[in-house]
Amino acid sequence: MTLWGSFTLTHLLYLVSAIGWTLVLSALAFVLGSVAGFGVMLARISPRAWLRWLAMGYIECIQGIPLLILLFIVYFGLSVYGYSLPALVAAGLAMMVYVSAYLGDIWRGCIEAMPRPQWEAAECLAFGRWQTLRLVIIPQALRLALPPTVGFGVQIIKMTSLASVIGFVELTRAGQIINNTIFQPFLIFSVVGAFYFLLCWPLSRWSESMEKKLHVAHRQA
């Protein structure tokens, strides 16, 4: 069945199936990056100066390197030393490193935004540092961290398009494959862009909604 010119229903279904792999890579990057980012956040607020400086150096280094270069290092660089990784694994690892630096920094800011009396009240209750974080600070910081975390999730979905350069067939790579067959770049990549919009727009609206509610709550407080 022909939809537009030589662009058929088969091509459209191929793009739709590639959305699944985009979501898989996005989820992989977000989950692994969140776990690593939590560790980065803890190191960044550690009472040990050397650990704070180490985490700061990690964040500045990773944030100063394009994700594309990290993908090349993990996929092509490791293969030189005999570690040949599947494209999905390589993309997931590279994005985990990249995401962890940003989420760790976002969450560190949310933790440090908590009022000092919250820490002092926990000290009066004889809470240790970990108890203070787990029972007092993190539950409150979580509400503050949700809008920027969801907002960064939108960026993660869009960043998966870079995995196409190492051969991982997600939405952008699927569009390239179809375009190499029928050569209708304007049509194909317009459809690809529309799919990205449909994936990202609800998350963007959700993030904006949470930010507005947070601001209203602050004014009422």
Mean pLDDT across residues: 88
The proportion of residues in beta strands is: under 5%
Question: Major sheet: order of its strands?
Answer: 1-2
Q: How many domains is the backbone divided into?
A: 1
CATH topology: MetI-like fold
Give the helix proportion (percent range). over 70%
Number of separate helices = 8
Sequence of secondary-structure elements: EEHHHHHHHH
CATH class division: Mainly Alpha
> How many DSSP E strands?
2
Shape: elongated
Low-pLDDT windows of residues = 216-221
Q: What structural category do the secondary elements indicate?
A: mainly alpha
For the sheet with most strands, the description reads: 2 strands, antiparallel
Distance between the termini: 59 Å
CATH superfamily: MetI-like
Under the CATH scheme, which architecture would be assigned? Answer: Orthogonal Bundle
